């Protein structure tokens, strides 16, 4: 354990945290395994409590004294109770307090630089062309937030935020550092309330929690906390991710020690659970001495891992290749509409607007995810069929408030094929280009990560396109009289796999 880590562990214990140092320690793994993380020092059973964090040691707008010093009325007036700006300002202010801050030693071990695309230059960002990362970066929202909320709040209280420290503690650059710390390390503690009798399923702890608590002979009151990647508190993130309900921003908390654990796809062997006043990191399966203790970031696709955490998973896949088994390619509904327009050039524009509006009103998806399992998301077929309905069929569907059944006939599949091809065309390199780039020993980290993200997506698209090709041939085979039928394929058409 390095000196920094030692000081941090000591601080953690002084603040009332407990850590089983006979079972685990903080150490340094190779960068590909997450860098700093936690290692098991002996064989551990499932259900072992590795460390416990008192609620007051977590850092949030609930536990920092800044909001009350600033005054709750003003806190609301400056919009600091929305999104992450309040927590960012609290973290800035706590840092400016130096050793006087309750979290000084914790803040000291937090990263100050990140490999996330938010910090990439335009040349590196160009390498992400085709992926959905660029639209999700939220650079403009961040700038707006800083200018419209943080700056006026800072200027309103020179007693709390002395202008002499503005560059060191309160600059736009520091705003990004704090935002990125939250993005990659915070937990959503929204369910971190005492569980009342009769509360719904939602708050049930999972079976591993039960066993953890049984072992410690505590009354089971625990529930698994959302992992870092399940945070839902940042307004811009919510909008991007389409998360259903905005949660209370003060639920977003930095959780010292818990945020020292790395993650890898389906490797989680420990999880954070809560009791009334403490959060416990509990092993969820046996861990061998010397193995890394992994938390979960929800097994995200590489595009999201890179955007939020600055790394990618590069693991053996079931099909013998390498990548992230959780990868997905997003096909926006707009690409599907463009595909229909290209094939049916005579269709009037307003037909699309009306039908898409209705589709969304009825709760239809605006993005369709395709993954390595190479399955069609059925809703995409409903949407395509809706766009292809004749005017009278459309009127009937609307009257009955009934979306078309997701039936993939040849015409529907042909539209999907066009949409997937359009999506594939958005990348500026081919699969072959990317594969040969990855052979290079001198590939910079950002470029390597960008190549891995786009390669995974393109391979999924390629696999889906192969399936669509087969299914179109089979569909034409079944219905030889359709207008779009190529005779040769119709004769030799294979049976649909669906
Ligand atoms: C919650 S922190 C984990 C602790 C972190 N390694 C540290 O030193 O503080 C999340 C960050 O750890 C790194 N990380 C976690 N899992 C990783 C992995 N499988 N590969 C590479 N980096 C990883 C990423 O930089 C990520 O943003």
TrEMBL record:
The keyword Methyltransferase applies. SUPFAM superfamilies: RuBisCo LSMT C-terminal, substrate-binding domain, SET domain. Keywords: Methyltransferase, Nucleus, S-adenosyl-L-methionine, Transferase. Residues 219-234, 483-492 have a biased composition (Basic and acidic residues). It holds the Pfam family Rubis-subs-bind. GO terms for molecular function: protein-lysine N-methyltransferase activity. Residues 193-212, 219-254, 477-498 are annotated as: Disordered. It is an enzyme of class 2 (transferase). It is found in: Nucleus. Residues 235-248 have a biased composition (Acidic residues). Its EC number is 2.1.1.-. Residues 22-298 form the SET domain. GO terms for cellular component: nucleus. S-adenosyl-L-methionine-dependent protein-lysine N-methyltransferase that monomethylates 60S ribosomal protein L42. Belongs to the class V-like SAM-binding methyltransferase superfamily. Histone-lysine methyltransferase family. SETD6 subfamily. This is Ribosomal lysine N-methyltransferase 4.
